[in-house]
Amino acid sequence: MMLIVTPVALFAGIVTAFNEALGAFGRVKEVLSLPTEHDPAEPAGDQSLDRGAGRAFEFRGAGFVYPGSAEGEWALRGVDLAVPTGGVTAIVGPSGAGKSTLFGLMERFYDLAEGELRFFGRNVDTLPRDRVRAHLAYVEQDAPALAGTVRENLLLGRHDADDAACIEALRRSNLLFLAERPADLLDLEIGENGILLSGGERQRLAIARALLSDADVLLLDEATSNLDSNNEHSLQKAIDEAGRDRTVVVIAHRLATVRHAGNIIVVEDGRVVGQGDHPVLMRSNALYRELVERQQLDPVG
Ligand code: ATP
């Protein structure tokens, strides 16, 4: 039998392979282990998002307990926070503070136990989960990449992106230096799981993929592993670039990459203990100051 491979089938094949590659990563396992989702029966009525709401996400009096945790073991409690539309919002705090949990709630993997989460002005309980997720691009730590070329990896973000759009996304993600000519970069083979790139470059390739997609909101979990200062600077620039035309939320492990963020949220023990920009938090927030001092950053920014 002759097999005709259409571009769409080919793309679907790439996506399947990519999903299989993703399968090795914790979050997918975490999601698969969740109880079956109860999506609110396709909520009736107006589901339009309010782009003028000025807030991509807003938590109001939010509390959350992980499924299977003891009653009263709050992972988050009494959380009020806003992620303004556009620009960069950073979430910082010690290990176990609740940063990833906030992402899991934004991605609609879980429901709140109390309070409310709004997405572009709408209570998420009135929106199908997929509808929220369709607006999000998630770039994880140790972002996965496929064996193949840079172009093939980018087209996962938008399968009909032309070379000019791919090159622009690579420019914004500070990856153009990888080849002498941008056109050569698109054909560069990056090896099994992108092994020929550094961890920082793989994460920026994932940012480039997200920039090509339609997602309004980019959720980025910055890698905990050490980046050299070039990669750190490149990541900071890529985050700022992404914030120019969409909303970026970053879990920041290195404060240097986000100290210019317009909005920094400080979490500790499942609570928000500060929100503001770097100078405001340096003046007003003891935990933030401590985190900055621990990383030996220039306190002035
Ligand atoms: P890190 O910087 O180490 O990634 P974090 O700030 O992202 O930490 P979370 O992972 O959100 O913190 O964890 C918040 C709290 O929820 C912690 O007490 C953690 O032990 C708990 N927790 C996280 N994931 C689960 C889970 N799947 N089941 C039960 N409890 C969890």
From TrEMBL:
Membrane topology: Multi-pass membrane protein
Compartment list: Cell membrane
Domain of life from the UniProt record: Bacteria
Broad class of where this protein is predominantly found: membrane
Keyword Glycosyltransferase applies: no
Residue ranges crossing the lipid bilayer per the database entry: 1-18
Keywords: ATP-binding, Membrane, Nucleotide-binding, Transmembrane, Transmembrane helix
Domain ABC transporter: 59-294
Listed GO MF terms: ATP binding
Protein name (Swiss-Prot/TrEMBL): ABC transporter ATP-binding protein
Species for this entry: Nocardiopsis coralli
Organism taxonomic ancestry: Bacteria, Bacillati, Actinomycetota, Actinomycetes, Streptosporangiales
Full-sequence portion shown in this chain: 298 to 598 of 598
